[in-house]
Amino acid sequence: MPHIHEDYLTAVQDLARRYQPKRILKTDCWNEADGDTPIANVIGAECVEIDSDCVQRAQSKFPGLVATVGDIRVMPYENKIFDMLVDLSTIDHMFDYQVALDEYVRVTKDGGVVYIVVWISADPCDYDREDGSHFDPTGKYRQYYFSEEKFLGSLNRTFKSVIHGVFHHFKGVRTLHWFECVV
Q1: pLDDT average, residue stretch 113-142
Q2: pTM for the whole thing?
Q3: Architecture in CATH of 4-182
């Protein structure tokens, strides 16, 4: 079974081939700093990352990486400057994801693509937990599990078109979903 970050890379490379973006933004640099798959480097993306230490680690591993410290809810970029935006399970670390979705539309050119990967749960007990009771093993980052119906509804209201799928090797109450959205 492939590692999930390899699946991310394959999917994003496929999107880049299909859309031929000139400028790509990735909404974190965790893979580059601490992960095993430097996705931004492979696809030629720049990154926006809320954690300045993560930016420093990524740039020390990959000196040519363009990474900016910033929040995906209020990004430090002008309007409509990216052809493609890639969010690989960043948006599901915040409760009010609509703010970030609106920001994604603001910085992505009309006709551009936004690729989002999030955790979806079939368990209603997982939804809307503002307390952030789901933490990663370090206890540093909150993880939210979204209702498929609610999240897909938000995407359909925000973007011109949405294609949706599930990573095949995640089965159970919580599944990893991908969304290809056109601005």
Answers
A1: 69
A2: 0.90
A3: 3-Layer(aba) Sandwich (3.40)
